């Protein structure tokens, strides 16, 4: 970065001559030309110096940064505009654009806070009722945040989390590494350092940070669309589409503390900075700022989410394709690769030597790209071998990537995320399994193909049709540019509006490739739509607001009746305005009705259960039940549990499967042995799982257990569950031997049945 942004006008001492503003080498004086000492050697020195200066100029800042002030003034005077007028115009545009971006983010954060309050009535509820609204893994994240605040000091709290033996029975875990608790560490530090204890309750501070990050998320999308199109009208349209399609753009409504809600705002900031960094004609200061922002946001994103390196891998593939077709400056792309490498290595050290980062495909790809570049640089240009390497560049990178990843997995001990590979094998039809965990994951809605309702919602908001239109135009334009590059035609330094070549802008090409890759994943897994749809909103808004896109289309149509530039400018303003008014008319009343509609989330049975545990259960008791319920128990009571809804650890996945056997057709003795092996004292049966009537037969918990245990008999195409034992969760409610010998019912309500696991077994009938 330092070399590329060297100040203008600096001359090298031994270069043999200066350089004019136009770029031609200045000839030496006659005395020097005629000097005998400067014969062939002097000419060679001059040529080498000129070549060196040319090379440095390639690495220098953009042409706009080198243009002499006098030339700019002449150009502006021809247009009848003074430099002062242009400066004021640019400042006003930047000021109002930034104001609109920040205002959009703040309004979205306030909207989320208001909607959350109307949905759960947080302000009028007790602390226990508030905590019950955190379900599943969300409850675990917030429970550790509470523990940090209760610790006598921050250092002591961190130590207890990294050596945690009070959460899961018979298991000591590093909760910070296991569950990526860096957001909770930051939130607790901010809460205590800011002196907010006397001003705001911890739960409001916590969810307020998450809602604030969502505001930053929207602001980053606004800026990205603005940078690409040149008008902040595109940013406004991006925000409108994002909020209208909130069901498909974010999971904030269902799981506030989830890792992606903390991480994706940083990724959006990284994408916005990367968009600016890839632009042509970027001045030196802006390039430095974008580079630093990409670096900081990439590392922060990697620390916030355990699966972040997979998303960065998709981004790296996009940049690799962009560079392979020579559509961007290679130096810039490789600077981003260095950022990936630095973030991975630093993340590995600060995440307690997380081996998942070492065996990640991102590290293998970046290392392969660096190695391939070294091979190309060391080869003499023009030779047969160098040309062969250039042709086989993509194949070479893929081969090295796969080889490195295989070697790393062979030599680096790792257990993390192995279940993801097994899941992909089954999902792609490469393997079949009766394993409960794999089949349970396959049945999750977020891991299935998206439904027709998803595409219908995007079509009703007019997002999908405009996205497809913009994508087709950009894709065809990029294809034309790639064909020209293959034919040897160089890219233009500056693409003008009348050129109609939107595919020559590297930031546009990057976003086209990126959305296609994310869209391909979203077509396979519905959960990936939360990564894809926000950038669909951004790309569609950019396209309809960009005169260059319309000009590209008109170039193909060869319009002659109307001036194409004028029509492109008119459509870039008229189309988004019409879309905005139609969205306002149709969806604004719905959004306001959401805020005014009185909703109520109340679960009295769960409240009663938590109250009974806090009053009646011994402090040293260990509870067993479904992992989702155990997370709520840990949050609301602080009692130890036998399992948790954590899906990145093989041992915990096995525990969850064993505990779920309480809903299978197993004997009382088998269940008793399983529970006592985890030192459980109390068992909780959930009626909603035991009597589950799922929409898809075969995806209920009890069905999956019957398949895993071999209790399913297939006859004439129909499946029947068969076992010599009845279903445990039904039989235990009958209160007859041998169930009463092992378990004693101590509490029940409409939803839950609590049994004490007997330590002394009596077999008297």
UniProtKB/TrEMBL annotation:
Arranged from A to Z, the UniProt key words for this protein are:
Glycosyltransferase, Membrane, Transferase, Transmembrane, Transmembrane helix
Per UniProt, subcellular location reads as: Membrane
The organism of origin for this protein = Anser brachyrhynchus (Pink-footed goose)
Q: Where is the composition biased (Basic and acidic residues)?
A: 1-13, 44-54, 63-78
Q: Name one Pfam family in it.
A: Dpy19
Q: Where is this region: Disordered?
A: 1-78
* An example Gene Ontology CC term for this record: nuclear inner membrane
Q: Where are the transmembrane segments?
A: 91-111, 310-328, 348-371, 392-412, 464-487, 531-553, 565-584
Molecular function in Gene Ontology: mannosyltransferase activity
- Superkingdom is Eukaryota
Provide the gene name from the record.
DPY19L4
For membrane topology, the record states: Multi-pass membrane protein
Q: Which InterPro entries match?
A: Dpy-19/Dpy-19-like, Dpy19L4
Q: What is this protein called?
A: Dpy-19 like 4
Please report which protein family the annotation says this sequence is part of.
Belongs to the dpy-19 family.
